[in-house]
Amino acid sequence: MATKMDERLEFVYQEILKRNPGEAEFHQAVREVLESIGPVLTKYPEFRERKIIQRICEPERQIIFRVPWLDDRGEVQINRGFRVQFNSALGPYKGGLRFHPSVYLGIVKFLGFEQIFKNALTGLPIGGGKGGSDFDPKGKSDNEVMRFCQSFMTELWRYIGEYTDVPAGDIGVGGREIGYMFGQFKRLTSKYEAGVLTGKGLDWGGSLVRTEATGYGATFFVAEMLKARSDSFGGKTCTVSGSGNVAIYTVEKIHQLGGKVVACSDSDGVIHDDKGIDLELLKQLKERERRRISDYVGYRKHATYVAGGNIWAVPCQVAMPSATQNEINGKDAATLVKNGCIAVGEGANMPTTPEGIKVFLDAGIAYGPGKAANAGGVATSALEMQQNATRDSWTFEFTEQKLASIMRTIHQNCWETAEEFGSKGNYVVGANAAGFIKVAKAMVAHGLI
Ligand code: NDP
Fold first, then answer.
1. Is the C-beta atom of 169 inside 6 A of ligand 1?
2. Is the pTM of this model over 0.70?
3. Were both Cys, which of 172, 204, 215, 316 would link to 250 (CB 3.0–4.6 Å)?
C-alpha cells in the first residue's frame, strides 16, 4: 500500500468523509482503495475526467427498513434491515447479508464497497452489494430466527431478483437463514426463482462446494502466494480465527494440503490444540449443535481454552483471519511477524487495520487481502447462479476445480497488476487496481448514469 495518497485523491477522499459522516469502516475501506489507485489514474486519465471514483463511492441505491417480529414470549421486537446496492456495472448486485448486533449503515457500506472490486476480480458477471440487520441470531430459537427472516424478506423481496440483486450469507446467515428467506420470497412472489439467493440447500437449488467455498478459496489463494515463493502448506503451523463457516472450511483445506491448524476462536475466547484442531469435533460443536468454542476442551483434554484470549499471540507460520473486521491491529501484526509468520490470508473482510497491513507489507511477508483471498465464496455463488440458470447441477470435483482455477487466476491477476503499477509482490495494490480498472472501464462504456 502506498503510504501517501495521491494529492488529487486526498481531495476526493475528504469529500467522501464529509458526505458520509460517522461511517468509520466505510472510510477505511475507501481509503485503502484510493491509496492504491494513484498510478491507475495516470494511465487512464478518462477515469478522472468522468469522475469514476466519486461515482463508484456513491451507492447506486440504499434501502433501510423496519423489521418487526414476535419473540417466543409473544413480545414485539424491532430490528433494522439494510440493503446497499452499490454498483451494477458488471452484473446484478451480489453480496451477502450479515445478521449481527454491530450492523449499521457504515458496516454494510464498507462490505458493499469491497464487494464491488472482489466480484470484479472473480471475472464473473456480478456487481457489488451487501445487506443485513442488527438482529442477533445468537441465543434465538429456531422459530424466532424463522419469524425474523420472514419479516426481513417481507420488505426485501421487492428489491431483489435473479437479474437485479442476489443476496447470500455472511456472519450470522447460513443455510438455515437462506432457507427461511427463500421460502418467504417464494410465497410472496408465487415464483420458484432459484437464482434470487445463493447458499441454498443442496436439495433445492444449491451448489456443491458453496458451503466450503470461502474457506477453501482463501486457502487456495495462500497456497498460490506460497508457491510464488517456492513454498507450500506442507508441515506449516497455522492459526485460523473464528469458528464459523469460513473458519471451519479453512481448517479443512489447510489440513488437506498438509498444514496443521493449532488454534481457532470465537468472540468469547481462543482454543489452542497443539496436536491440530479436531475438525470433526469442530463441525459437530459449531455446525450441528450450535455451541461455543469453549466446549471443545471438554472433549480434547490436552487442548486449552483462554477466555478473552488473543489468537494472534499463538505462534504460527500462516495466519488466516476468518472472523470479522479489524481483528488484527498493528500490535498483533508485529507479534505475528516476530513469531515467524510468513503468510497471512484474509478469509474475513477487512480483518487487518491499516497499521497492521503496513507491518505486514514492511516485513515483506505474503499478505493476501480479503478482497482477493476470500473471493472464492462469491465466485462459487456465481457458479450456483450459472447452474440455476441452466437447471443443471455439477459434481463436487468439477465445482472445486473451477473454484481452484478462479483463485489461481485471481492470484495471477493481482500479481501482474501490482507489478504493472510498480508494486511487485503487493497484493493490496494488485487487487485494488485490477478490480477498479475492470469496473471503471464498464462504467465509462455505460455513459453517465
Ligand atoms: P459465521 O457467522 O459463520 O462465523 C463468524 C465467526 O466469527 C464466529 O466464530 C464468530 O464468533 C466470529 N465473530 C464474529 N464477529 C466477531 C467479533 N466481533 N469478534 C470476534 N469474533 C467474531 O460467519 P462467516 O464465517 O460466514 O464469516 C466470517 C468472515 O468471513 C466475515 O468477515 C465475513 O464477512 C467473511 N466472508 C464470508 C463469506 C461467506 O461466504 N460466508 C464470504 C466472504 C467473506 P461468535 O459466534 O462468538 O460471534
1. yes
2. yes
3. 215
